[in-house]
Structure formats: structure tokens, C-alpha cells
């Protein structure tokens, strides 16, 4: 049932809203969203009875057990309280938003994201697994990003969304680290189990680290000083979003986490020394800054920051009394702040402005909304008979028990400031003279659908203000669940016994009123600009500077490493590879050389000339490497020699592959070289020394590595493949069986990489045109595509294709296979396009400038993947192959293996990738010719 | 079992083949001009490879295999050698025709009053 509570909005809600948004319009989408939220609320409340009795409901399923990440859900009074809050206020916000959103705002986007957010929040409060909680935590950050940036065409919305995402995202990552560490310490990621062993975990030496990291996540999420700055900037969001995320739910997630883990943290000196000062600083700073904000929502944002600070202070006390006050204030704050945000939204909606200096005297135009706003603001100011008063009284009482006298003093100052900004909110909006110049000069009351949620919340503020004992059983149960201990008997009443807290309350009320009256004399407050006062020292600017600095550093590193020079990149790759080899290869410590097998004379007779050929080619390369054409030819010689060596060493598959690769790559290199000057430009001597050093190091390392591998006796695994190829893979060609069966997964990865690389090269090179170094004079007897060659290729193409089919078919049992066959096909097609011209070939195979080959690559990978996935249908793991030798009439015994289909995928991918790589080079040549023709 | 006489024949063919190939290599090195050089690899090497193939065919026939593969090789060599020779010749002609960047257009004559047309 708990799973249903989350899954309903997560899957059904988002999908239904996204679908309905484009088709059914705003009201219908809102109705759908509300229905889903109501269903979830109903599902939740079916579980309420046992929880109310003091128990808990739990559900568990495995998700990723190897990581400790499991779908464990648990609802106790604390979770139930938060989940109900999320769903109930969510319902009000959904209703409100259906009137708030304009005709041009896409409703599907809004409600689908809202549903996603709701599900994520429910996940946080219902999760009983720290890692699951972190997953949902990040999901709220993402959903909040989308919701804050809902009006994505506005720059402030994008900036606010980005800033909120970065701050809470960084917090989320740190929290994840903390969660992992806590799981490591406690041996489990189950929250209820961790909380039960609070004292033992606190004594662990790593506990302070875990605590600081979890606290960091909570502080960023709950907009605590010094991370508070994202919340005011997130006010660029639509007002329903602010009412939901930034007052009632998301910013409370950090507080919820600390309450959830309260037994873990309570009594830890470190926790109190961090949470209490941070809470106090946030409380005071937020309250004072809020007075000076001219933006209606900015004022509310800073007031929210202040109230979050108040709750943080209470949690930071580390006592059960603190938890009680925190829970009570979370409840009260959610009621009045959501109402206030919605009121601000009404004013904004009706006047088109949120500037407190212009929006005055609205009481005449919005009498009902004004009344509700006044009730909610009175609750925010902590005036008797409104619900905020109660939590403020208890807050004062609790601060008096705090270890430092500064705590109650700052609390009183902040309370006075909160009275002042509450007065300002009401006075500036609804009274204080006539409205200034407004975008919409004729405000009137909005539809009741927009006022009703505010009215309901305001009524609740009044109800719990006048009859506070109604909240008693709820708060007691929730606080007990959070603290993990029985709470002292709670007496919520309007008039407590007289004491210092009453005096503090009186001082705050009087002080706040007087301060506001003084500041408002001659509208002095309207001329103050708090943003200019802080200037670039404000959090937002410091954050922007930090981000800019990081971007600059990253750009600097990129500039220094990615200079656009291929030489530099190749050097970096080689140096890194060498370093990797030197540090990871277990080089033999002693210099003993094992007895190498003595070569026979006949081997030497073959091997020595080959070796000489390689040595001469390499030496010649050293001299002529600046001649690019010569260098390509010499490299080709070395490649062919290795092909011969493979053939001599009884590796016909490798030899064939090598020859085909050599042919294709030499042609490609020549095509590519036609873009470049014929000679490498001269390089300064010092740099050549560096190049030489890298080259020598690479050569020596590879040589030594090869020698060492050859002479060291080692356990070989080849006997396994030799023995198993026929019975296990159904093929006599062990190399091919290894490629398509035993190590099929590797091959699958390789062809994917090949395809991706070819696509990348195609994307990079496409549209390149060749620099013209010289004009070509054509004679009448020189045709661009020699007739003789065209005729020859016409004869050769069928033969080559036949050969590739032959190689492919026999591949499983004799030398051959998809890879070689693919290369042969590609080489044949390459020859045809050389002979007939790329333009003609492009048209002939309908290459569509490579698009067709891109699809071919995709098809090849898809064939391989489908063959692999077919094994699932038989209940086997991915890429399990089957083989058989059915006797067919006429054809006789037919060796069949499903691996052949996989090999077909390899074949298709290789053909596609090779031709795809060639296309841009060919197209460039064609452009070249076209430009020349146009120029003529 | 390959008989003595056949072995001599095979050896002779192989030797002749290597001789022609070697001559081709020398020619490639010695001739001065691209068109002269064309003779060496195409004519001499074709003959050289032909002799080697004949040797291979005799050996195969003596061992009781049909020398089918060698026939195919011969076919392909005879098909490709002239084509590549023709391509090389064309490339050489093209190279000869291509004489670096064209000279810059001659500047217009300056009139007596110093103005240009």
C-alpha cells in the first residue's frame, strides 16, 4: 500500500498529466492530477489506524541488494504526518494552480512535473533505506529544477533553477557519501535499524564525518545559512510551486531528515555545535533581511528561510522538547506560509506586479483575499489566537533552556523582525495609500477556486490558534516517533503560566511594531535597497563568482591539454599508457632470464628476412617520415610482414584480417592525406627530442613487454578453448568460436565501439572540403575514371562478394568469419567507388551521403543484440548460443549455430562502419571537383 | 611422391621465376623515367609470378591435388596487372602535366598617365 502511495503519482500521475496536458486542457489535467493525489492520500490513510495507535507499517522488496539499495518503505507517525502534509497541500496547490496558470502555460508540463515532485517527496518521507532516500532526494532536486524553471523562456527562472539544482545537488551528493558512510558504520542502510543503534554508532571514529556530510545535505536542502541564497532566487518559479516546494515541502526535507535521524544525532556535541548556531544565524538573518525586501515573494522567501532557521535551532537543541516544538512549527508554518504564498500569487495574478512599493491599498479590490492574508500573516507574526503564536511561545520557552544567553536574545530579535515584516506584508499590500502604477490597473477578486485553498488554510490557522489542544495528540505522536522516545505530556493552551517567555513575546510584538512604524515614516523603507547594501558580497554573487571561477579553471585545464594539436593528444595518450604499464605491470623483480627456446635453422631462414624487412622499413620510416606518402607505404609494408608472420605462425584468421585491414586502411590514409600537405612541416629540434624520447620509451616498453610475455612460462587457458570449441560452440575454427561465442560479449562491445567511432568520424568529417594546393590540368586522353579499371572492377566485384560470402559461411569451422568477410566486402565496394568515382558510387548504392551506412551500422548492432537477446526467450543468459547439425534432404548435414547470426551482425556492422568512414572523405573529394567545375 | 625429374622441373621453374622477379626489381631501381620503370614490374614480374605459379601447379599435380587455386591466381594476376600498369601510366602522365601552381596573372599595363584600366 505504501508502494502504491509513491507509485501512483510517480507513474500514473506523470503519465496521465503529460498525456492529458496536450489534449484535454488545463482544468481536466488538474482534475486528473487531483484525482491521483486523492487516490494516493486515500491509500495512505488506509494505513493510518495502526500508525495512530503507535505502530508502524513497513514494506520491503529487493532492488539492488548488492549495493544495500532496497525498496524498503516504512511509515510511522512522523512519515505519516509528512506524507499527509505533502498530499493535502499538494491537492490545494493543484486546485489553486489550475486557476493561476495562464492560457499559454502548458498544463501537461506543470502537472506532470508536480506529480514527479510529489512522488519524490513521498519517497523521501516513506523510505526506510538511506540510499533509497538519497535517490528520492535527488529526484526532488531534479523535479524542483524543472518546476522552478517552468517559465524557461525567462532568464531569471533559468538562473534560479540552475542555482537551486547546483546547491541542492551538491548537497545531495555529499549526503549520499554520508549515507554510504553511515551504512558502513552501522552495517545496514535500513534507517529504522540504524536509529535503533544510535548510541553505538555515535561512538564510531568515523561518525563525525558521516554527521557532517548528512548535515551538509540537510542544510543545503533546507536553505540554511550560508546556503540560503538559492531560495530567494528560486522565487522565479510560478507561485503555486513556491507555495508547495518552498514553504510546505521540499525545504522541509532537510529538517525531516534530521528529525528522522534524530536518535542518531541527539546528544552528539558536534551536532549541537553546528546545527544550533547555523539555525540561529539563519533565523536572525532571514528575518531581518525579509523586512527590507520590496518583492512580495522575496519577503516571503526570506521569512521562510527565517522560519526554517527557527526549526533548525529547535532540532539543534538536541532535546525531546526541541523536537516537539520543531514538529509543531513545521505543521503551523506549512499552514500559514502556503496560505501567504497563495495570497501573494493572487495579488501578483490580479495586479501583474509583486513590488510592495507599488501594490498598495488592495483591501478595497481584494477584500476576501485580504482577510485570509491578514489571518495568515497574523499567524506568521505570532499574534495570540493564531496558530503561530503557540509555536513561538514554546520556542521561547525552549530557547531559555539553551546553554548560551545569546540564544533567547537573538530569538527575540528575530521574532521582532518577523512581526515587522508581517506588518509590512499586510500594510504595504492591502493598505498604505493608493495603488501605484500597475500593469493591470483594475484588480478584482479571483475565482473562488483560487481563494478557497487560501481560505481553508487560513481557517485552519485560526482553528488551531483558538483551540490548540486539537493538535496535541498529533504533535505528541509525531514527536515521539521522531525522537524515538516518549515525549513529556504536552499541554497546548492559549495562556501558559506567566514567565520570561511571555515577556519575550511582548517585547517582540511591541518592538516589531515600533520598528516597522519608524522605518515606514515618510516611506523611508521604500527608498532603501538592501541588494545594493550587500552588493557583491551577497550569497548569490559569491556563488556566481565561485561557479565562474570553476568554469575558468576548467577552461584553463582544457586549453592546456586540448590544444587542438593531434601530436599533443597522441603524446598524451602514449605517455599515459606508458605510465599505466609501468605502474601496473608486475615486472619481475630479479633480472633472471629464463631459457628461451632455441630456434631451428629453417625457422630462422624464414624469420630472419622478414625481420630484416621490418627493420629496414622502420629504419626508412625514421628518415622519410616527413614524406607522408612514403610513410604510409612503409607502414603498409610492416603490416603485410606481420600478416605473413601470422600465416607462418599458423594463424590464418589473423593473417587474412591483417591483409584486409591493411588494404582498407592504406586506401583510407591516402584519401585522408589528400586533405593535407604532402610533407610534415618542420619541427623545432627540442620538440623532436621530446618526440624521440616518447617514441623510444614506447618502443622499448612494448618490445620488453612482448619479449617478457614470450619467454615467461605461464599458465595458458588456450587448452580450454581448443577442447570446448566443437562440443561447446559447435565450430571447428576456435578463433571464430571464441569471437562469436565464448567471448561474444566482448565482440558485441567491440562492434558497438566500432560503429560509434565510425559515426563519430562521419559526424566530424562531414562537409570537410579539401584544400587545393595546385590546379590540375587535364588532358583529353586522361579520363577521371579509367575505363580499364571500371571494366576490371565490374568483373572483380562479383568475385570479391562471392569470396566474402564464402569466407563468412565457412567461418565457424575454417578460417574466415564475419569480420574478415565484412572487410573483404568493404574493400570490394571501396574499389568500385574508386573506379567509378565516389559520386557515382554514392548514387549507385544509394548511400545518401552516409546516412544509409549509419543505418547499416545500427542494423548490424541490432542483429547481434537480437541474437543475444533471443537467448532470454529460452531462459538463458544474454548471448548464449545454440548449435545443431540437422540432416536436410538434398543438402545433407547442415552445421547450424545461432552464433552465425551473431556473426552476421558483426559482418553488417563492419561493412557499414568501413563505408561510413570512407563517405566523408569521398564526399570531400566530390565537393572539390564540384567547386572546380563551378569555378571553371 | 614427387619423382626426381619433376623435382628438377619445379626447381627450374622456381629459379626462373625468382630470376624474372629479381630482374624486375633491378629494373625498377635502374630505370630513370616512370614510363621506363613501368616495364620492369609489370612485364618481368608477371613472367616471374607465372613461373612460380607453374612450379606450384606442377607440385600440386604431383601431390594429387588439382591446381585449381593456382589457376585462379593466374587469372586474377592477368586481370589486375595490366589494369594497374595502365593506372600507373595515367598517374605518371598526370604528374607530368601538373606543373606546380599556375603563374600569377600578368599585371595590367600601366598607362602613361599612371592610371590602371
Write the layout of secondary structure elements.
The complex is a heterodimer of chains A (936) and B (117).
Chain A: H1 2-23, H2 26-45, H3 48-52, E1 57-64, E2 69-75, H4 77-100, H5 107-126, H6 130-148, H7 155-186, H8 191-196, H9 198-202, H10 207-221, H11 230-233, H12 239-248, H13 250-260, H14 262-265, H15 269-291, H16 296-316, H17 320-351, H18 367-381, H19 387-400, H20 406-430, H21 448-466, H22 472-483, H23 500-520, H24 524-527, H25 530-534, H26 539-561, H27 566-584, H28 601-624, H29 628-648, H30 652-673, H31 685-711, H32 718-729, H33 734-742, H34 744-765, H35 787-810, H36 818-836, H37 838-844, H38 851-873, E3 883-884, E4 887-888, E5 892-893, E6 896-897, H39 898-935
Antiparallel strand pairs in A: 1-2, 3-6, 4-5
Helix pairs in contact in A: 1-2, 1-5, 2-4, 2-5, 4-5, 4-12, 4-17, 4-21, 4-22, 5-6, 6-7, 7-10, 10-13, 12-17, 13-16, 15-16, 15-20, 16-17, 16-20, 17-18, 17-19, 17-21, 17-22, 18-20, 18-21, 19-20, 19-21, 19-23, 20-23, 27-31, 28-29, 29-30, 30-36, 30-39, 32-33, 33-34, 34-38, 34-39, 35-36, 36-37, ...
Chain B: H1 4-30, H2 34-62, H3 68-97
Helix pairs in contact in B: 1-2, 2-3
Summarize the structure.
By secondary structure, chain A is an all-alpha fold. Chain A has 39 helices and six strands. In chain A, the strands form three sheets. In chain A, strands 1-2 form a two-stranded antiparallel sheet. In chain A, strands 3-6 form a two-stranded antiparallel sheet. A two-stranded antiparallel sheet of chain A has the order 4-5.
